[in-house]
Amino acid sequence: MSPNLIIILCIILWGVWGFTNKFCNMQNSPVFVTLATNLLYAACSLPLLFKVKYQEINWSMSAMGWLIATAGLGVAAKLMFNSALAKAPASVVVSATSVFPIVTVILAAIFLKEKINIQQSVGLCLCVSGVYLMTLNS
Hints:
single chain, mainly alpha, 2 domains, 6 helices, 0% strand
């Protein structure tokens, strides 16, 4: 499968995911939705164990530390996302939170010394402008 097709499918799946999250948060508390969906993510991910060989896993303290940090940040972000979704329209919350990759790009540029060219900088500004327009008057 081509990378572009994978990206398109990912965008569609994330879009539907944001939509279904609104229904979850309309019917349950954000804390419960975060807990339940994370448990279900883990259960749905179990078949992936058959794809991973033990030798492919880096069990070092550094690798495990990054996994724990990633999981903790993910749970905290998902809880904040669900809390916002419970109080605001999905169109606003999903649009506003969809610019999180900008934080990743900035952190990668600062700490990993990844280069951001002019075209990418303009793209980042357009993303922020788009979110501003999407959330205006909301």
